[in-house]
């Protein structure tokens, strides 16, 4: 019997692309914001594109942050994708001029030194760490890049070293900010664009990728099939 997967619809993300990619690897997929469906499905996928603050606003509007927390309390699988991965961390900091709509109802404040205005937004807090803008000569980081898989990674099992995945983002969990996550026992897979950052993370029933597996062809399908196998 195909596992039941919900792609959480909170107004952000490549919903139909994710649905098709998951169906390709044998999941029974629904795209919905229904809380009962999101809680009771075998696997919950949290996509996300755009600004961290806007995504958190959308998540909070449907109670998505609470749904994620409840599923993790019950040891039920969750997969975050792109900004959906970023939202799992404690916070995100975005620079002025690169923001989406402010997170209405969320925890948002202005921080940063004079002349470098930025906005801090509280995330879901499933993992420690703050998402920040990459220090790179060219942003966004857009295109195909290799990933150094974590030892004993479930997501990357059987995927050859040097395989490329598709990225579109300017923000990520940078290496210095990942210390607490690593200390908690999470398996972190890395990539580089200007600097080293977390391309994926796995801990218990919580998994996430900064890249888009649904846009990564056969490589992304292999990763999603690995995740499906955990359901």
User: Residue share in helices?
Assistant: 10-25%
* Outline: globular
Which class of secondary structure composition applies to the elements? Answer: alpha/beta
List the strand order in the largest sheet: 2-1-3-4-14-13-12
* Largest sheet entry: 7 strands, mixed
Please report the total strand number as a whole number: 14
Order of helices and strands: EHEHEHHEHEEEEEEEHEEEH
**Uncertain stretches:** 98-115
CA distance, first residue to last residue: 11 Å
Radius of gyration: 16 Å
Strand residue percentage: 25-35%
Number of helices: 7
Mean of residue pLDDT values: 91
Could you explain the architecture of this structure?
The structure is a single chain. Helix content is 25%, strand content 32%. The chain is an alpha/beta fold and 231 residues long. The longest helix has 12 residues, at 217-228.
Please give a handful of descriptors for the protein shown.
25% helix, alpha/beta, five-stranded mixed sheet, seven-stranded mixed sheet, 231 residues
Give the helices and strands, then pairings.
Layout: E1 4-8, H1 15-24, E2 28-32, H2 35-40, E3 43-46, H3 52-61, H4 64-73, E4 78-81, H5 83-86, E5 89-95, E6 108-111, E7 118-122, E8 127-133, E9 141-146, E10 164-169, E11 171-172, H6 179-183, E12 187-193, E13 195-203, E14 206-209, H7 217-228
Parallel strand pairs: 1-2, 1-3, 3-4, 4-14, 5-8
Antiparallel strand pairs: 5-7, 6-7, 8-11, 9-10, 12-13, 13-14
